[in-house]
């Protein structure tokens, strides 16, 4: 079963890991849509996000979510958050700190929360 496989596989992946920032917002690999403030949408890959967080595993595999509303956060903060999950590095501007930190805690991305 895929859910069992992912739950067992995720701890074996060492994050942060560079999954290739060029794959963020890819039409081919982006099977999840994050809806940002102002109607903007960002595509991401559920598997890459799930490597970082059991919350994502729950949302995508158990609840079968394909869209996430993150309109409560600044769009640039969501983009920085996603960029960090794809690249394994965070380039954080001071004015985005609070929202990126909240995203880390909402989605329980521990390695990134420790760097914010």
Layout of SSEs?
Elements: H1 2-9, E1 32-35, E2 41-44, H2 46-52, H3 54-62, E3 67-69, H4 75-87, H5 97-106, H6 110-113
Structural description of this entry:
This protein has six helices and three strands; from the N terminus they run αββααβααα. Strands 2-1-3 form a three-stranded mixed β-sheet. Strand 1 and strand 2 form a beta hairpin. The chain is globular, with a radius of gyration of 13 Å. The model has no long low-confidence stretch (mean pLDDT 83).
Portion of residues in helices?
40-55%
Q: What is the ordering of alpha helices and beta strands?
A: HEEHHEHHH
* Radius of gyration, in angstroms, nearest whole number: 13 Å
Global morphology: globular
Look at the helices and sheets and give the structural class. Answer: mainly alpha
Strand order of the largest sheet: 2-1-3
The N- to C-terminal Cα distance equals: 35 Å
Strand content: 5-15%
Are there runs of 5+ residues with pLDDT below 50, and where?
none
Which assembly state applies to the chains in this document? single chain
Mean pLDDT: 83
Précis, in short:
The protein is mainly alpha-helical and 116 residues long. It has helices spanning 2-9, 46-52, 54-62, 75-87, 97-106, 110-113; strands spanning 32-35, 41-44, 67-69.
